[in-house]
Amino acid sequence: MASKVGQKGQIVIEKEIRDRLGVLPGWTALQLLVDDHVEVYFVPPEHSRSLAGILAPYVKQSLSQEEWHEAKEKAWEEAVREKFGTPVS
Question: Which of 7, 12, 56, 65 would suit a FRET pair with 18, their CA atoms being 20 to 30 Å apart?
Answer without folding.
Answer: 7
